[in-house]
Every structure is written in C-alpha cells, then in structure tokens.
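Key result, reporting period 2: structure in, sequence out.
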C-alpha cells in the first residue's frame, strides 16, 4: 500500500488481547528481520514467546535451516492475523504470510497458539 493511502487505514490493539499480541509480534518481527536489526528479533522472541517454545523453535530451525517464526528463509512482503478458535486455556490464530507481489504472490498459513493466561505464543505450526 503506498504511503499516501496509509493515512486512511486505522490500526489499533490492546495489550489484553492475545490476537493483538500475535499481530504486534509478527509486525515487529518481520520489520526487524527485514531491516536486519541486530538482536531485535531475538529480543522480540524473548518477550512474546514462551521459554519452552523458544527451545523447541531453536531445534526446528536447526533441523530445517530456516526461520521458525516465518517457516521460511525469506521475509514476507505482507502478513495478516485472524482469530481461529480458543479452548483449554489457549487461543489459536491463523497468520497468513504473503511472498512477493502481484498476481504471482504466494501465501503460506501458520497456526499460532497462545496461552490465554500469559498471552505468550506457545506454538507455531504449518496450517
């Protein structure tokens, strides 16, 4: 979206909303990775992800040689987050990542689990 159209878009959120926290994390994380900002991606992971999940994510990344948050080696050009379901103390969102632009852009979907008590992300899987 060109910057001149960005003035028409209203964005908001709440620190009490697990869905908003997932969206905040993905927006900041993708910016940090795209910008190549040293250590910010790790700091964001430490703030938004559970310790147990960070350990499992490191193992996944070593096995797959890719960024486990994005499930890819590249940086997406767009992202969105949607509520999917909740139950048993967890909230589930679907994160859609767009790769490229125009009619040939590709999409991947991730299932993101958050713990309702802490609002921390506790799992990411391919959807």
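The corresponding designed sequence is given below.
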């Amino acid at each position: 979206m060109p910057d001149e159209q960005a003035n028409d878009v209203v964005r908001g959120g709440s620190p009490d909303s697990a869905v908003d926290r997932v969206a905040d994390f993905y927006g900041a994380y993708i910016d940090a990775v795209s910008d190549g900002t040293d250590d910010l991606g790790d700091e964001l992971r430490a703030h938004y992800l559970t310790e147990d999940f960070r350990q499992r994510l490191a193992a996944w990344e070593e096995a797959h040689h890719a960024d486990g948050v994005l499930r890819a080696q590249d940086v997406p050009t767009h992202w969105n987050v949607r509520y999917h379901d909740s139950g048993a103390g967890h909230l589930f969102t679907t994160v859609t990542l767009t790769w490229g632009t125009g009619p040939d852009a590709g999409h991947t979907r991730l299932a993101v689990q958050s713990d309702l008590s802490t609002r921390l992300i506790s799992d990411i899987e391919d959807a």
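The chain has a mean pLDDT of 93. Strands lie at 78-87, 90-99, 106-115, 121-126. This case is discussed further under Risks and Mitigation.
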